[in-house]
Request: fold
Amino acid sequence: MIKNTNQPSDQTDTSYAVQDRGRSDLGPRSLRLALPSPEATADLAQRIGAKLRPGDCLLLDGPIGAGKTHFARSLIQSLMDFPEDVPSPTFTLVQCYDVAAGELWHADLYRLSALEEIEELGLTEAFDDAICLVEWPDRLAELTPSHALHLALSLDPEEEEARLLTLTWSDAKWQRLVKTSCKSLL
Ligand SMILES: Nc1ncnc2c1ncn2[C@@H]1O[C@H](COP(=O)(O)OP(=O)(O)O)[C@@H](O)[C@H]1O
Ligand SMILES: [Mg+2]
Reply:
C-alpha cells in the first residue's frame, strides 16, 4: 500500500534534528513509499543518485537487513563509469569513491565507538564537501547534518521482498529531487 504524506509534519519526531539554516522555513516534510522488490529499491537509489551534488547527505535508517547497504551500493554503482565492488563499510566505517559529481563517502556507523571518531574520520568536513551516504545515522547524535535527507527503511511483515521507505527532510532543496525521483512510485 502506498501512502503519500507529503505535507508539513507536525509530528514530534525528535530523532530528526531540525536546525533552520535560513534556507528552509518549511519545517520537516515527508513521503512514504512502498518498495516492492530489491530492484525497485535499486531503481529509486539510481534516480536519486543521479541528482546528488557535493554537500548532499543521505541518512539511511532502519534495522539490520532493511536494505540500507543495498540502497547505497545500487546508488554508488550507478555512478561508476566501470562497475566495481562496493563493500559494506561495516569495519572500515567509511569508504570513499570518486564519481563524476565529486567525492562520495559511504559510511556505516554501527561500530562507532565514540562521537569524536566522526571528526577524526573527516566526516564533518565531508558533510559540507562531498556526497555522503550514512548508515546507522543515529550514531551522529548532535553532529547530524541539518540539511540531510532522511530515508527510513523498514521491513514489510507481509512481503519478504518488500520494504517501506519514509523520506523526511526540512531543507527545501530536497523537495524537487524527491518529487521527480519518486513520482513513478506514487
Ligand atoms: N525491497 C527491497 N529493498 C532492499 N533490499 C531488499 C528488498 N527485498 C529484499 N531485499 C534484500 O534484503 C537485504 C538487505 O541487506 P542490506 O542492504 O545489507 O541491509 P542493511 O544494510 O540495512 O543491514 C539484501 O539481501 C536485499 O537483496
Ligand atoms: Mg548495511
Confidence is low (pLDDT under 50) at residues 1-25. Helices lie at 38-49, 68-78, 116-120, 123-129, 174-182.
